[in-house]
Structures are given as structure tokens and as C-alpha cells.
Amino acid sequence: MSVAFKSAIDDAVLDELRAIIGDDDRVLTNLSSRVNRTRVPAPFPVHRWAEHMPDVAVLPTSTEEVSEIVKLANRLRIPVVPRAGGTGLADGAVPLRGGILVDVKLMNRIHEVDLVDRTVTVGPGINMLKLNEELRRHGVFYPDDPASYPCSLVGGRIGAGGWSLLGARYGHTRENVVSMQVVLPTGEIAQIGDGGGRKLRKSSTGFNLKQLFTGHQGTLGICTEATLELAPRPETEFAAFFAFEDYASAWETTGILSKSGLATIAGVVLFDEWKIAYLRRDDEAYIEQPESVRAVVAVAMYGRRVEVEPASKVVMQLGRSAGGRYLGDEISSGDWASRHDRYAIPLHGRSTEGQAVPMSWHCEDAALNYSALPKVREAWHAIVARYRERYEIFDDWGMFAYTGGANKPWADYLVEIDVGIWEQRLNEETWSAWVDCKREIAEVTLAHGGSITACHGATRAGDAELVPTEMGTAWPVVKAIKRALDPNNVMNPGKQSLDEAYE
Amino acid sequence: MADDGDDTNGERLTEEFVDQWRGNAYGCFSSGHKFCREVCPVMEVTRNENHTPTAFHASIVAMEQGLVGVEDVADDFVHCTQCGACELRCPNSLMLGDFYRHRTRTVDVVKAMRALMVATGNEREGWKLWNERLAEDHNEPVLGDVRVSQEHVADWAEGLDIPIGGETILFVDCEAAFYRTSYTRAFAQLLQAAGYEFGLMREQWCCGGPAAEMGYVDLARKHADHNVADWRAVGAKRIIAPDPHDFIAFTEDYPRYFGDDYEFEIVLGVELVNDLVKEGRIALTQPVERTVTYHDPCRLNKRKGVHAAPRELLRAVPGIEFHDVDHVTQWAYCSGGGGGLPVEKPEITAEISRRRIGRAQELEVDTLISACPWSERPLSEAGAAAEQPLEVMDLFELVAQSAGIEVGGHTHAATPEARS
Q1: Predicted confidence (pLDDT) at residue B414 exceeds the cutoff of 90
Q2: Is B293 in the same domain as B265?
Q3: A391 and A315, same structural domain?
Q4: Range of the domain at A151
Q5: Residues B293-326: pLDDT tens digits?
Q6: Is residue A495 part of a domain?
Q7: Of the candidates B235, B257, B276, which is a domain's last residue?
Q8: Chain B touched by A50 (CB under 8 Å)
């Protein structure tokens, strides 16, 4: 088996890195630089912090620098871990075997705004909110809008294969990346798009490599430049929240709305009973609702007034057609407007004794068809309840289901169960219980014809070992591609069970 | 307290520090979303993850875990202007703030870590020298190698006939007393024009705020003690702080030092002048033909929520064309002049100011108006160095001009050798 192992990077390697970068301030070997590039917001095994430290972090400013770094790593079989914002909810940007961490945050320039052919070309270290601040004056925007919109970076979105809150209307990350420059695991630079054009959205020449290089979790290369879609800034938005007395009618309404054929619908979100109970219990910003409110459906639309205003009337009818009660303008516009801030709301949970404690947030993000939602929901809550009975570190913060199909919201969903994990109490036993819990959740997903991850990536223990099962007959193809592009397994090794490609 | 070479003492202090800040740190660590990163002015320049507020809190958890010591993270904690943007942008503050007045404390963490650096022998050279000079001269060495002194602390007031003492005392910041004296002269003359009575201190030392920001807590306290004693000796009831940094010291540090035994009313200069204009006690009769934008000083806007009064005052000036940028967008703006950053990392301060000037120039203005002398030095330098130079002016200077006052003084050090 040819696997890049945790490396002991010696002075000779550091000298080579410094020669490539030409600025010692961008080759960081000090403890603090390594300690602070080990984790992402997802629950982190604090007791094993040191195992996740890279040996050195480099902050390149050009594609050429990245290329030379990766060539060096490939020559010496040193693991390379790409890292952009470090805001992922799985471990794409977390080193598993030390090595060289390539931190792209300094590559945050806007290279070109093309208002004629409607693209913007940027470095991977730029944040979407910052990018849109610059684009605003041109009347256009880059519509990739994750919950982490104020903090995640374009490079990480591409590596992870991000999902957008507005995906039903504008597409998700992969639909919004027109082309990109990628440093391959052997260090060569490739321009990846649809066919050979840098600004073309559809081609049948060669293979469609763009999809391959979106969502590989940093295992096939490092994006160093991206040409992105520019959409017209929507003239107006409309959001409505509807309350239900039971999950079944909320689920039915979610289906009615997402199958309505209204093209301006940007997303439909379903909150289940556990989610409402959690918000009632622990969200200080929760606006009191009668006890009869047990599930909620939110819907948002974007577009021209001439489209959105008449459609909003239809949405109001459809939202009420199966027993929904409109929650009013304050909640509808306010909660939607604060959607990015609200996503970080789970700042604390409850111990089994009911004590409020700081907890980290695990967000399971399966992709599932509409028909599977009710059964998966029951099975997932039962799993978490079983673990919570045994271990005080677990808390169940309820579930969301979001429309998942890009421009086609009617059939599949990003399904999220939020599990609170009390990191301060993690030890070997509880961490391994958590990994078992995750694996059970993922197994339920697979049993219902779903996919383990819609956007975070199957890069953590508990998920990663199930990737071969999920991929099934396509797994040999995946392994062949990985081996062909990364002959020495240096690019983000240990993720997604891809070590099997070298057995 | 300087390093006494006692490792055990350092360990004990570190342990106490971690005990004190662990809970606050976990509030960030367990969330870890880094919304703060893209509004942090230092991070915007360095793009180094160590310099994020998130990393500051994570470092405390790492200290608790025994992974790092003070010496490993000391340089990281220099990378902060204490502007407070991160606290505002923190989802913990945003979502809980309205309900529990909860605020993630990052500025205080940075100050506490810097104090720990001083106490454990991890001082930074620039700050050490700066505070040695402060200890000797009792004002900050804002003129570089040209020493400041008590003898010259009120030179700025030459010809203004301001009495010493009284119920209302005008406190003058070190930068404004020695470097940008036009700022202070403009302010004092506006009060005089309104017939507002005030006096100066008998012996005015530095407020001590910057020393506290750099971790020199004992020195800061000594200066606070002196100033409060001087106020009491003349029977002062009211202290006017035109400078936002002093305002922070008097409304946050001093009440912590003196507790209930702190009887003074603290008046913010810009709010006072705005009130006097609104009451008709200062007449703004001279049109000023300038196209301006306003820089929200961090300690007014982000730390104290003061953004309306300066805008109101600016709009009261006849002839002005005002291209405003809202105060929330300006959470991400800064001059880089605060928190001791220009002493230790002048290149980062200069770059933050260069970018701020660039933002102003996009608005096609001829003048950037600020309301904080500490911002005005780096901003003026960046404005002068820009391809299309941009003038930086203080709000009081602008208002005084409109009130027909010949301000006098200087906007930079009086002698070339005292310029930065």
C-alpha cells in the first residue's frame, strides 16, 4: 500500500518551501500557526488536538507557488491539506496526517469582473459577502448563499461542493462555478471547465471535468482561481413562514410548495417538531408561539417584481392549503433576513439534567428524496435519543429539511439533524460513541436510498468508511480516478476512504 | 509587574488567566463559525488565521489543554486594534445580545492576555519602550524621540486663556496635546464660542488607557489615580472627553478601578458640540465647500454605539456635500491606529489606513472627516501618499471653520524630527 504517512518535515523541506514562497512570514512552523489550523466548527476531539496539527502552514499568493509546493510534496510524498475558510461542517480542511497545510486566504483578489459575458474571476480566498459588496454597484451578485455566507470562502465552497439556501432558484456552488484553475496532486496546473472555454456554461467536448473538481473534499487538487457566475441582483424578495399542528401536514405543504412550478422559489425549509421544541427551549430569539405550533414551513422567492408579487399570492394560498397558518410579517421577513446569523444559534444545549452547557454543533446533511423524509426523521431521532440516554454529551436539536435540487426543488432535500455535542466532556469513550452514532445515522440514510452528505463531505470518521458502500459499483471508478490523478496519495490523504485506491 | 524570573509564578498567573477566561472562550470555541473574520481590520490585511478573534479564544482553550503557552501566542495577540468589530459581528452577541445583554468579550481578552504577557516576561520591545517613556514623562511618547513633558502639555492652548480647574474639566489626549493640536484648539474654541465654561487640569497625565491596552496595568492604574486626584483637588464634577479613546478609559476602565467611589459625569465631546449647535449656542455661518465622507472612529461606533451625533453635526455644516457610508458597513473599517498596533506593527496600520482611504476615494470625495486624533495620523499619512491625495480633517476642525474660528495649531508634529 502506498500511502503518505504523517511526515517529519525536516529543515531541508522548510528551506525549499521558503525558497518557493520567498517570504518567511508566509511559511509558518510556529506552534500557534499549527494549533490554529486543526479544526473547523464541527465537534472536535479536543483530547486529540495535537494529532490534527499540520507540520507547516504556507500562505501562497499565486497559482505558481501552489504548484511548486505541491510538486515538492509529491516528490517527497508529504501530505498536502488545502484550507480556505476552515468553516466547513466536516473535516475537509482538517489535517489527518500532518504535512503541509496550504492556506489560501491571501489569494482573495478579484481578478476580473466581466459584465458582458457575466462572470467574475476571483482567488479562492475571497468570501462571498465581501465579493458581493464589490459587485453590488454593478447590479449583479454571485448567488452562492450558504448559511456560512459571512465567513466561508470560495475555495472551500468548491472543494466541499457547497449547497446554497437560494439553490432552488440560482443553483448551488457547482452550478455557479463556470470554470477554475486547479493545481493537480502532481503539481501541474489545469484549466477546468465545460470543454475548453473559461466562460462557457455548456459544452460536450472531452469530459465534464468541472463536476469532478467540485466537491472532491480537497482530494483531487487545489483550486487557485475560479470564474464564477454573475446573476442579476433580484429586484425583490418574499419570504413566508407557515405553522402547523403536526409534521405530516407540514411535510405535505413542503411538497405542495416545491412542486408548484413557481420558478422564483429559491428554497423551501421544513422544521420538524424536535426543532420547534428546541427553539422554544433554548433559542433566546424565539418569538413565542402557541403550544399548538409543532412544525413550520418557510418559503422564499427572489426575482423581478412582475414575477414575485403575483407568485407570492399563490404561495400564500398553497402555504395554507393543508392547514398551515401564516406566522405574520415580522417572523417571515425577520427570520429570513437573519438566516445567516440564525444558523449559528446552537451555542448551547442541555445536559440530561437540564443544565445549559456550551455545546458544539454537528449538522448531519444527508441528501434524501421527499418520500423518505418522514421515516428517516423517526429513525434518526430514535438513534440520538438512545445515545443521549447513555451519554450526557449528546443533545437533539431537531431537524430541518431544505429543498436540494438546483433549479429543480421538487424531489430531493438536504436533510439535517442537529446534534449538540458537549466537547469539554469528550474522551476516548464518548468520542467513539459519537462516531458510532454518526455511523448509525448514515446507515439509515443509505437504507432509504439517500446519500450521506449533500454538501459537507464524507470526511469524518463515521461517514468516511461508508463511502465505498454508498458508491457501490461506481467505487472502482472513483478509486481509478484518484489513483490516476494522485499516484502518491499526497492530496488530503485519509479522507473519504480513498486510501483504498492504493491497496 | 515585570518578570521576576520565577517560572512557578508565571504558571500560576497563566492558570488564573485560563480560569478567568475559559467560559468566555468556550462560548466561541464550541461555535467556531468565524463570522468575525471578515470584519476584522487586521485579519483583512494579514489573512492569517492566527489573528482571527476565533483563534484568540481557541488559544485559551489550547492553553487549558497544555498545547501552547503564553510565549507561543504572544505575537498573535499583538494583531488587534481593539476596535470591537468582532464582538458586534459575533453570532453570540447578535442573537443573544438583545435578550441577555450578552456580548462575547474579545477586547477584554486581548487586554488580559497582554497583561499576562507583561507579567510573564513576554513583553514586546516597542510597547516596553513606549511605556517606559510614559512612566518617565507621564504622557505618551507621541513625538518619537522628541520627549514630551508636563511643561509642554498645555502648549496647545496658547492664547486661548483657559483657566485651570473648575467644575468642568477638559481632558486632552496625548496625541491631541502634542501632535494634532488643531483638533484640541478647534474643540476648546467651539466651547468658548458657546460660552460654555470649562478649565484644564493642574497637571494632566495620560489617561492610562493605551497602557492598559498594551498590558501595562499597574502603570495605567497609576495614571488613573493621579488624574482622579487632580480632578478632585479642583472640585471637578464633570469631565469632557473629546477623544474617543479617553472616553473609553473614563467610562470603562476608571469605573472598574474605582467602583462606586467614582463620582464624575463623563461627557463625550462630539455629543456636547452637537448639542450646543442644536441649541443655537454655536452658529455655523460660514459655508464650507467640500465633498466629504465620514470615518466612524471604532471606539465611537463599534465600542460605544455613537454614530448619529457626528453625522448630525456634519450635516449641520452649510455648504458640505456629504457622501455617507452607513455605520454597520463601517464595522469592517478602521484606521489601524488603536490598541498599540502602530507601535508594534506600523506596516499593518499603514495598510489598514491605505485601504480606508481607498474606500473613501471610491465615493469621489475631496475630504475624509474623522472624529478621533489617533485615526487621523495614519489616515492623513495614507491620504497624502495616495496617487490622488485625499485630505483628512477632524470633525471639530471642520465645524470650527464653519463657526468662523481661526483654529491655529498644527495637524502634525510641529518639528520634522518629531513626525512618525
Answers
A1: no
A2: no
A3: yes
A4: 110-232
A5: 999 999 999 999 999 999 999 999 999 999 999 9
A6: no
A7: B276
A8: yes
Q: Would residue B412 count as lying in a domain?
A: no
- Residue count of chain A, please give it: 503
Residues A240 and A226 in one domain: no
Give the residue from B74, B92, B123 where a domain finishes.
B123
Q: Are residues A227 and A310 in the same domain?
A: no
Asked whether residue A493 is assigned to any structural domain, the reply reads: no
Q: Is residue A170 in a domain?
A: yes
Disruptive mutation site among B38, B43, B45, B64 for chain A (greatest number of A CBs within 10 Å): B38
Which residues does chain A have within 8 Å of residue B95's beta carbon, measured at their own beta carbons? 283-285, 341-342, 344-345, 347
Per DSSP, A295 falls in state E
User: How far apart are the C-alpha atoms of A379 and A364, rounded to whole Å?
Assistant: 14
- Asked if residue A97 and residue A60 are part of one domain, the reply reads yes
Q: Which of A55, A89, A105 is the last residue of a domain?
A: A105
ipTM of the complex: 0.94
CATH number of the domain that residue A124 is part of: 3.30.465.10
Interface membership of A71 toward B (CB under 8 Å): no
pLDDT category at A5 given cuts 50, 70, 90 is very low
Reported as a single tens digit per residue, the pLDDT across B207-258 is 999 999 999 999 999 999 999 999 999 999 999 999 999 999 999 999 999 9
- Interface touch B31/A41, C-beta < 8 Å: yes
Residue A1 has pLDDT above 90, yes or no: no
A47 and A143 share one domain: no
Q: Which of B21, B33, B331 to mutate to test the interface with A (most CBs of A within 10 A)?
A: B33
Q: Do A296 and A205 have their domain in common?
A: no
**Domain containing B288 — which CATH number?**
3.40.50.11810
Residue span of the structural domain in which B16 resides: 7-123
Stated pTM of the model: 0.95
Could you tell me if residue B97 is inside a domain?
yes
Which residues contact residue A493 at a Cβ distance below 8 angstroms, ignoring those fewer than 6 apart? A3, A4, A79, A96, A97, A219, A499
Tell me what pLDDT residue B417 has. 62
C-alpha cell at B386: 495616495
- B294 in a structural domain: yes
CATH number of residue B256's parent domain: 3.40.50.1860
**Residue B384 confidence class, pLDDT cut points 50, 70, 90:** very high
Q: Which residue in B29, B33, B75 is closest to A148 by CB distance? A: B33
Nearest to A108 among B47, B49, B59 (CB): B47
Do residue A36 and residue B50 have CB atoms under 8 angstroms apart? yes
Convert the pLDDT of each residue in A216-271 to its tens digit: 999 999 999 999 999 999 999 999 999 999 999 999 999 999 999 999 999 999 99
Residue B311 inside a domain? The answer is yes
pLDDT band at B413 (very low <50, low <70, confident <90, very high): confident
- Three state DSSP letters for chain B: CCCCCCHHHHHHHHHHHHHHHHHHHHHHHCCCCCCCHHHCHHHHHHCCHHHCHHHHHHHHHHHHCCCCCHHHHCCHHHCCCCCCHHHHHCHHHHHHHHHHCCCCCCHHHHHHHHHHHHHCCCCCHHHHHHHHHHHHHCCCCCCCCCCCCHHHCCHHHCCCCCCECCCEEECCCHHHHHHCHHHHHHHHHHHHHCCCCCEECCCCCCCCHHHHHCCCHHHHHHHHHHHHHHHHHCCCCEEEECCHHHHHHHHHHHHHHHCCCCCCEEEEHHHHHHHHHHCCCCCCCCCCCCEEEECCCHHHHHHHCCCHHHHHHHHCCCCCEECCCCCCHHHHCCCCCCCCHHHHCHHHHHHHHHHHHHHHHCCCCCEEEECCHHHHHHHHHHHHHCCCCCEEEEHHHHHHHHCCCCCCCCCCCCCHHHCC
Count of domains observed in chain B:
3
- A43-47, A193-197, B4-8: the lowest-pLDDT one: B4-8
From A85, A105, A125, give the residue that closes a domain: A105
